[in-house]
Amino acid sequence: MSTRVALAQINLMVGDIAGNARRVIDCAERLRGTADIIVFPELTLTGYPPEDLLLRPVCDLRVATALRDIAAAATGVTLVLGYPAIRGGVRYNVAGVLRDGVVEAEYRKIQLPNYSVFDERRYFEPGANAVVFEQDGIRFGLTICEDVWFDMPVQRAASAGAQVLLNLNASPFHQGKAVEREALVADRAARFGVTVVYVNLVGGQDELVFDGGSFVVDARGQVKHRAAFFEESESLVLIERGIPQSGALQPFLGDEEQVYRALLAGTRDYVAKNGFSSVVLGLSGGIDSALTLAIAVDALGADNVEAVSMPSRYTAEISNSDARRQAQQMGVAYQSISIEPAFNAFLDMLSDTFSGTGPDVTEENIQARCRGIVLMAISNKRGRMLLTTGNKSEMSVGYATLYGDMAGGFAPLKDVPKLLVYRLARWRNRNGEVIPQRVIDRPPSAELRADQKDSDSLPDYPVLDGILALYVEQDKSVEEIVAAGYARPIVERITRLVDRNEYKRRQAPPGIKITRRAYGRDRRYPIVNGF
Amino acid sequence: MSTRVALAQINLMVGDIAGNARRVIDCAERLRGTADIIVFPELTLTGYPPEDLLLRPVCDLRVATALRDIAAAATGVTLVLGYPAIRGGVRYNVAGVLRDGVVEAEYRKIQLPNYSVFDERRYFEPGANAVVFEQDGIRFGLTICEDVWFDMPVQRAASAGAQVLLNLNASPFHQGKAVEREALVADRAARFGVTVVYVNLVGGQDELVFDGGSFVVDARGQVKHRAAFFEESESLVLIERGIPQSGALQPFLGDEEQVYRALLAGTRDYVAKNGFSSVVLGLSGGIDSALTLAIAVDALGADNVEAVSMPSRYTAEISNSDARRQAQQMGVAYQSISIEPAFNAFLDMLSDTFSGTGPDVTEENIQARCRGIVLMAISNKRGRMLLTTGNKSEMSVGYATLYGDMAGGFAPLKDVPKLLVYRLARWRNRNGEVIPQRVIDRPPSAELRADQKDSDSLPDYPVLDGILALYVEQDKSVEEIVAAGYARPIVERITRLVDRNEYKRRQAPPGIKITRRAYGRDRRYPIVNGF
Description:
The structure is a homodimer. By secondary structure, chain A is an alpha/beta fold.
């Protein structure tokens, strides 16, 4: 009447069905004799989210082949894993129980999320029925991710006799989600009187990071075990007569640490899973590129990071020296390339065309784009992915140059508001200066014309970020934001800028979702928009 | 027992709820006395697709205000229009019947498409019930777009006594869709013995073009009326004892013409609805930019188009002269700006960094990106939207430079395969040369190194486009494409290129969907992809 359940919190590769199957089989080989049941994340075989790969008929063939191989390895240990499956001509999001060499049972996900970043109704039909299997005298039910956010699937499993619910997840990170998720599952476990084994995916996939933190709550809602966040783990929990015994309780992470770890995981996986091993970035002496450099070094190692500063006539000497100092402190390859020759060449080439006009944002953009060309040339020549350094506040209002500072393969700070950039920089410096204090203290400037400051064009960041959180993340109207205490003309201007700059965001590189609502698949706005 | 139905095939503005309501009221004022019922397209008030604007609570307030205003105008004429509506805490896609100053009835869309470009399950819950109203002794049922692609909603309306079905649509264009759509609806009308009045939206919204072509089929499946394609119209159909009388039958358009008209409509609306009146584009002497120029001129007028050729050391003199000749023939502003000074400046700036390495794609990309900077500078300085000229074949395999020739606000040919580019060019020349014949006849080249030809890097376009159609549009596997007669090494290389270049497409400007499966919201692939 006791059994050992392993929570296989692993980092999978979307689309690599054969490779993910090998991970499952390796895990089974390694844990056979130690664990009686191994539980894997949602859609183990395809990774999550597989998107339109699911629509390729050959995807189903590969899943079927993988399942046969895995079933053959399911001897002496029960494997519970996720995959898409067409049954009766209809595609379901399935959790299969593989035991004694066969697929013994399949549970079909009931609640299919189709909001935020999720599109599961595009691919799947909902299931309806509980699935319960017995092992070592204990009755196990199955659910998949969104299912446990609703009463019905849990209730059905409990009614069908489940003492322990094995819940397979691919639950993406945002700030505070881990605490929220655990509290919700604990509540449901207590209400329906079932133990829940919650196994989450870990690692980055395009704009999403899965934060792990798999856990076990008993039927009174007590957390008995919690795995680490943002790393792979295979933890074992002993279940006796349906009651989980206490295991390790890894701590929740603080505000800044959880975001920073998400940025590391997202950056590391995006770079590596796309076949790159190193990155290059522009280091301006400003806070965004300074934090991006720290993330890149922490994620990939100093040897795999190259920093380039690209001064112009408008660059303060303090910017150059702070950039150089940080690069040296962090031990990364560093060079400085003036953009003046190219900038002058373009001004000459366009002098006839532009004769009779005064300087405007055109000349500022040319500078930013000259930097984009230099960085992309280094990226192309050396096979290093270019990281772009813009933050969410800039992306929101379009305070960035398309094909200039927005150029790059990945944007680690894309969903990080400016005030949080500062908090993360201070947090990263907590054990010693990594980002020069002066970079944190200086008023931010794009340095694209003489004596430029961000505050010439934008409200102070506390005001800007406050308005953006209400408008973008909470869908508040102009009226409501004004009622919250912001000046109407500023609210009107900022919300208009957000709407009008959708076209820039549509051409931005991917970045890591860390807020409740990121740009990209999470917030789907029209470009042509008369709202 | 007779009534006059107006098919209001109009071009709406997504998000501009007050403006769209004014269009409806204007139409009611104008047609009162001429028409008894006016039928508008699906989601008339928000335009289609409104995407996440639907999630803003203020959207519902604006719709409610607009409905009150429109209801007040609904006297002496019945208005049937579409809007989102929260009823009992749930959002539906609704067709409302406004008569005698009130909203008399509301039908809730039953079939919510959630495939291809559609995400309606993200926003709406399905309705279940038929709605039938009587006017002049005739019983009218309601359905919305996808509903008539299924039997059930039509059957329910017929069972509820509907003689005439008013179907509100926002049905986006792809090649051949108009014929397919009409045949399907005619079949359903005949099977259920109802007349169908099919009113479609017209005009462009981001990557979609709605082609109009509204029609009426009688209960035997005979088409009695067809409105023009790609233009606004308000046509009247007389219905006597449930039987529609014959009206005008605008012709279907031929293959090339329908695509060309879609490209015009999409380009015109994207430019104008974003507040621009003019465009600039790079004219290389090649076929893609030649066709894009013709589209721009036909869509916006020669006065609103500026062409720039940007030769380098690798540009053939024939390219320059063909570009100049076409610009003159079409009467657009034209200039030539050599990129050599900027190209040389970059080579000098990077000479230390790149010392010891040979030339590769890096130097090719620098040239393309210098052109991108010149064009964006002209775009910025003059407030002209930059059109980018790449086609679907290039976008598929990544034969284009990010931030170089891919730079721009809109990509008219983004979904047009290269062979179709040629067909469209020949079709556009049918009444006299617009695109110099030599441009059509020359072997295509990117001219980024000496004696370069597309065929150095890519299979011939008939092979490339054949493979791409099978892989991208039909989801065929490598095995199936090889079985269709293509050489395995080429199939493997091309399909791998498609997968690996998703990152480029993700940063591409929007363009017009004309095939069954366009890149963008239509084909959602992961960037990190081990498939």
